[in-house]
Amino acid sequence: MSLPSSVYLGPQIMTINKREIEIQRENAAMVGLPYDFLVNPLGAVRSTFEKAISSGSNPASFDGKDWGALQPFQHFLFDQNGLSKVPILNASSAKWLQPNTLVRFRGMIQDMLGNEFYVGAYKDGSTWKTTKFMDSSQCPTGFSPDMRIWERRVLYCVPVPGQNSWTESSRLGESNNSAEGTSENRQKRCRMDENGVDHMDILAPSDELQNSSSGKKQKDEQLSPCSQNISTMATSRSTACNTARDFLPCIVKIYDTAESELKLNDVFEFIGVVTLDTELKVDKDDYDEFSNGLSEDLSVQFPPDMVPRLHCVIHRKLGVHDFLHTCHVLEPTTHRIKEIRTALLNHLTIALGNDAVAAQYLLLHLLSKVHARVDSMAVGKLSLNLTGFNKESMSIFGNQLRLTVKNLLPFTEYIPLTVEYLNTASLAPKKDYEINRLVPGVLQLAEGSHLMIDETQLEVGTLSLLGVENARLLKNLMELQKVEYDFKYYKMDMTTDVQLLILSEGKSNILPADLVVPFQPSALGSTAITDMDALEAWRWYLSNVRLLPHSIESEIQRVVENDLVAAKQADRNLGSQDLSRLLTIGRLICASYGETSLSLEHWQMVKELERLRRERLR
Amino acid sequence: MASDSSPLNFDAGPSSPDDSFSSPIGNTVSSSGDGYRRRSRRRSSTPSEMATPPRQRSRLVSSENTPTAKEPRSRRRGGGRRASGNDVPPVAATPSSTDDIPPSTEPGDGDDMDEDHPTFVWGTNISVDDVKGAIIRFLRHFRDRQASQSEGDFHTEGKYAEVIKRVLENEGDSLDVDAQDLFNYDADLYTKMVRYPLEVLAIFDIVLMEMVPQINPLFEKHIQTRIFNLKTSTSMRNLNPSDIERMVSLKGMIIRCSSIIPEIREAIFRCLVCGYYTDPVAIERGQISEPTICLKEECQARNSMTLVHNRCRFADKQIVRLQETPDEIPEGGTPHTVSLLMHDKLVDTGKPGDRVEVTGIYRAMSVRVGPTQRTVKSLFKTYIDCLHIKKTDKSRMVADLTEAENRLGGNVDDLSFDEEKVWISLRLWVQYFWVILVFYTHAFFIEMQVEELKELSKKPDIYDRLTRSLAPNIWELDDVKKGLLCQLFGGNALKLASGASFRGDINILLVGDPGTSKSQLLQYIHKLSPRGIYTSGRGSSAVGLTAYVSKDPETGETVLESGALVLSDRGICCIDEFDKMSENARSMLHEVMEQQTVSIAKAGIIASLNARTSVLACANPSGSRYNPRLSVIDNIHLPPTLLSRFDLIYLILDKADEQTDRRLAKHIVSLHFDNPEGIEQDFLDLHTLTSYVSYARKNIHPKLSDEAAEELTRGYVELRRRGNFPGSSKKVITATPRQIESLIRLSEALARIRFSEWVEKGDVLESFRLLEVAMQQSATDHSTGTIDMDLITTGVSASERLRRESLLSATRNIIMEKMQLGGPSMRLSELLDELKKKNPDNEVHLNNLRNTVSTLASEGFVEIRGDNIKRI
Fold it and tell me: Which segment of the chain is annotated as a signal peptide (chain A) (predicted)?
């Protein structure tokens, strides 16, 4: 059984570290480190550059290549465990972070601003100097033969849409270890600490509003979200607060990286040199129409004091599991996974008012992931439509469900579907050629995001042209896991991997989900999370189990095939999608037990589950 | 030597970057000067292997950012050059080493290069003389291989010598040089040109300048060289620092055009005090310095000079944004853009949305932080100095707009309308352009060699191969795919002199059970077809499909907005869920599908818009699942009038076949467990298929061979006769004239698939087979198993048919019983009574009986005389 490497990483790092530290000590003794990676990363860059030059390399040979600057960084960050000391760049830390220090930024590539040519190295007098990983330089104007022009990619990154703040809180705590935070930051940390690391983030702002209550009481309130004091209004307000507070985009400049490595909507951690507002502001009077016509001036569109620049030294792709609290290492035994599964299923069942069938499906839905694309078909997606909601049950179970999901998954979004929303919202990202930017849309989501759509609020009404277009986009997303980006002169399909949960009164025809499960709650339970360790375990479970490989033995395969044929013979209305769905459910059930091969038992469970569901549909 | 001591001297002339770009394009005289100044500078500076940045600096950067000592000489020369448009062209310097210096050479230039013999342009391997000689040879002696072959020996002049003459005759101002020609003639020169475009182009211009007076001494304009059609075209994504200052060729789509920027070239000032006009003041580093003192000796007033706008000389400039075409964008990327700088004649040659191929020089300009600050961001802005712009489908666009209706063949897109009667607002055109874009997006021609396509077409299994390549993920349904293939290729539209026209578009209806991948087929065709609109029946209204008149809320003007069918003119309009479409909307299709026009008469607009579209519709049977007990008509549940307009109606039935089910199950399981990409088959990729179809549609216009025509007639007669077997009603006709048209179209399409100009017998036979396959499915009378077009054309239900048949047999029995061969005749009313006696619960009308009897009569069973029947 192979689980993602993060699980095992701990001990490995330890063993490597001992060896590495010794090597490092030797190196330090020999060369000495005239720079500090955190405070003066450019010093490190410079020293490696000088070293490379002095060893006789021609700067021309560094075109599009690294001269060895990355290696010390890699060593520092990963071998010496320096990564956790690197402060995270976000809205709050941006206020106190020093320019030209090493920071890291976790975000989604929202737009690509093309390539940028810059003077990479130039000769100052008789010595070569480099301006790599820097914004501006004192290099001589104009061209000279003693100058190398290099290229870098400019990416516009934003915090991952729908990122829940429990993912950050631990990070922030980590970063505090190293950074000499200002009082402001400390305050924030205090607050976060007070609230507890993994509380329902959504309530944090509302806590601030009701500071009258004691900490303990607050905690109780947080932990019983089904209690009536959480109205939808409060939640919506708090999310608004959240976005305003946390939103810090960042322009990331990438050096010497293959284009295919970084894709739109990928989530990355960029570690590099931050420059905040060092760029000289452009004089308004000198707005040169001509030169600005040639290319948009970034500093006009993205004022440097609002959007920091990060000159990326090292970047790494992040999966959903990277947003968990890594301190929590679980032994991935099948037994343990089963335990977690049972507990989580229980939790979901309570959240769904004791509807065990719906909880089963919800669990599978939360584990689903597109794992292959064949032509236009996305294999592995499992969108779920819970029907039978009305206004009242929505306010209870809908919110409860929403909070539950929010607490379990790092990226969650929620769309209250109304006619007005459809007619006004910009769901698809759209290219604005005036500013040459991709204007984000609601559906520009990172891989592995969860999207809950509340259809109960949809009333009779007329859709405008935009509304029809939006409905079509949603339908496409449901069916193909693709979002059409509007490039004005043409549209471009972008593949996504979003888990879609629809809550509706009857079966949703606007949003045809893979699974329609009538929701039948029988009791009102409390989803209070008493055990933080359990919550951690659930998050770990959801993000890791879905990455399990899956296979089938030929014997089972035959059984499955026979069953499919029999099902098809019995009901001619079954299409290939229905059959495909059965297999997806099978895979997910199998994975939910932490197993990698479909067993007969699991297959029986699939059939049983489907039977129960069909009974309800009748 | 001043120029040598100050390497920046040349900055003074073409000072601003904007000015300097124009050198190869806008103002060629200057460019020649440029070349020299550059050259002289190069000689002066230290040689290095990096040639690019210095030039960069000279032309763009330093001029803006580095104040340099003004070179009075070059400035003066700049002024003179500018005046050149009006005066005798001062043919700028030729190298001093060459002996054919034209007399008009300015002495200043001579100074520039007199000191040592300039054999090589600095930093390059360009020897001016060599290059010049090579260019002269090329222009004089290059001959098109084909042209020289066809025109024989007496044709002695080179291709470009001819072209130059023509340009002179037309008073043109540019000479288009095909880089392919250059490459074929002198590969070395081509390489040099690509590598050092500024230098070589400058020499090109000098050569031209020398040649022109030899041909026509009175010709005053200057001719610029515009290079196009480079051998290799760079992808926008791959432009990198090493491409700076090289000639590149890019393909892309224009997304934005700036307004035209008038760029001042020369200014004339007037003194407010004395009214003295200055000499033209040339541009310096992108700025014109206003004289502070009146130059008139008597006046010498301070700060009195004012710009006289209408005596200044301006040049047009435009910044255009070019974006990658969608097919070049890798997965998970956003399109790249690049700026183009257009000058003079090139301004406004492209509009947003045009697909163009641009040849130009890739340039970079450093970003200045402020006007007064010396600090420069270490960044460069890059752009392409445009030399030549070619609309990738210019011919097509032109054809689109001007093509006359009399043109045969459904291969050039056009949208024609009755111009006398209608005024169609711009909006329609905008939409129309949008349609063209849609087309380009979906069916972008990859520049596949025609040869390759032809090669492909010669393969014996091309028909099967194309069928396989069509929606390869949908199996079975081979005959449906073949029909769809025919639809893609289309038949020949024909317009007779009498005005009657026959459509070439093939309409197909797919009726089938749910889950038989009809929609996928539709989507696929939509993706593939040159111009397609995909609509869903439920979401389409009549006006949405055809066209509607709307009022502009601001101006109150009535405008015509075209709907899906008009928009997919010359394409395929895919309509999903045809059965769920409203009656009203469907009825709009009648005109479209046979007459291929959309007529509008409302709000003072009477228009007939072309909608030469193939319709591909798919529908579910009326009961959502095909009911074998009902007739096809009842199952399809569409008005027969509409049905008859479909050339092929496929019934895609999901038969309860274990074999197929098992295959499906296997496929789905493998989808989930195996690597689905592992199963590769021998089929053409989408691009090849698209270009194949496009090429065939454009270039192949098959005609019926005699043999094929004969076969067609024979087959048709046969088809008709088949319905006339004894026992069937007289009303049963197997084929209608509409069917023969369909057959012709199908055969033509089949010939097209083979790239054949002639429809052969095989094509006709295949088209019969296709029709039969489709018809057998869609028009099988389930009681008799015969092909029954009556079902589709008149909509007789199965029960009605059954009733008729029982009546027929009952009548026959009675006649057999009651009447003797050659015996006395019987009245119809008597027969009716007899029938009623036999089947008391069956209601029989006299009319029905009359029909039945006449059927019997046609069989030769009875004879009718008035109301009397006689058995014979």
Answer: none
